[in-house]
Design goal:
By secondary structure, this protein is mainly beta. The chain has no helices and 15 strands.
Length: 199
């Protein structure tokens, strides 16, 4: 990984079984913000000739270097629901910057390209390296079944971040996706149907 030069292994070879410790010595400052990683790989060495199976184990160490000023990562999830149920949305805000920030979040609900509803979530104050998950829900009783799209708008420190996710509102119907198209005369034919539940 890009931080491999900062890592050192306690052992480079193990004959049977054992524990390997990775020591990481980080510098005081790093010029490139974001998520960096160190990958520790253990590979079985086979001395026999011919075909064989060799195992390989990998361990990942993630190192998060904060961005200067205010910086938020936004992650959005939307759950499918049956018609009449509530659709649950979760917006996770992670402060990856060096400063605390206050964020306001809103959700826009679309059917195709038509905006049909807007939801406002509570404001959130996030300290550096802090994360918060905001929850909202939508009553689907008045919505027709189909595929929808939700867009999260997060405004903080004069900046805006967005995240997008699709979700479905289901109904007690099935949809025929495909079927057998060729049949032979004077024989028993197998008829294959591919159906999708809309529920």
């Amino acid at each position: 990984g890009d931080f491999a030069s900062y890592g050192q292994l306690s052992d480079s070879t193990i004959l049977s079984s054992g524990t390997v410790i990775t020591y990481v010595t980080l510098p005081e400052t790093v010029d490139v913000p974001g998520t960096h990683r160190i990958v520790v790989v253990g590979t079985e060495v086979r001395e026999e000739l011919g075909l064989g199976i060799a195992g390989e184990a990998r361990g990942l160490i993630y190192i998060h270097v904060p961005y200067p000023g205010q910086y938020l990562d936004v992650f959005l999830t939307a759950q499918n629901a049956n018609q009449g149920e509530r659709v649950r949305f979760e917006v996770t805000l992670s402060n990856k910057g060096k400063e605390s920030t206050f964020a306001t979040t809103s959700l826009d609900i679309y059917r195709e390209d038509m905006l049909i509803e807007q939801l406002s979530l509570e404001g959130a104050l996030l300290d550096p390296a802090q994360s918060k998950t905001l929850v909202a829900s939508l009553d689907s009783s008045s919505y027709s079944p189909g595929v929808y799209r939700v867009v999260a708008h997060v405004v903080y420190g004069g900046k805006e971040s967005t995240a997008e996710q699709s979700f479905r509102i289901g109904t007690l119907e099935v949809r025929l996706l495909n079927h057998t198209r060729l049949l032979e005369r004077a024989t028993i034919n197998r008829l294959n149907l591919v159906v999708e539940s809309q529920w």
